Amino acid sequence: SQLTATKAGRHIVREKGTYLILRELHRWEREPDVLAACEKLIQVLIGDEPGPGMENLLEVDVPEEVEQELQRLDREEEEEWWRREQEEQRREARGSTPRPEEPPR
Q1: Distance from first CA to last CA of the chain, Å, rounded?
Q2: I need a surface site. Which of 18, 28, 72, 97 has the fewest CB within 10 A?
Q3: Cα Rg for the chain, rounded, in angstroms?
Q4: Which residues neighbour 62 within 8 Å (Cβ) at sequence distance 6 or greater?
Q5: Burial of 48 (0-12, 13-18, 19+ CB in 10 A)
């Protein structure tokens, strides 16, 4: 997000209590894109400040292989969310609830 790209912007967002709002949003939100955006923003807000020379995150050069790996991980995360969501919908359609795992014998 543009607002949290700079150190000053991150400071303002933290001061306004945005983390608490995002945490609550994350508890009930079902849309995968919104959840992913919340999670990424939360990581920016609770993470350590970047080191010298990285105050503006929009100006940081990300190596191509790192960018591709991050995109791959994002896709896998979204696919997993959709699998869980579809399974939950199937269970609800059958009127069943997930069973707890049986203890090992």
Answers
A1: 50
A2: 28
A3: 18
A4: 70
A5: exposed
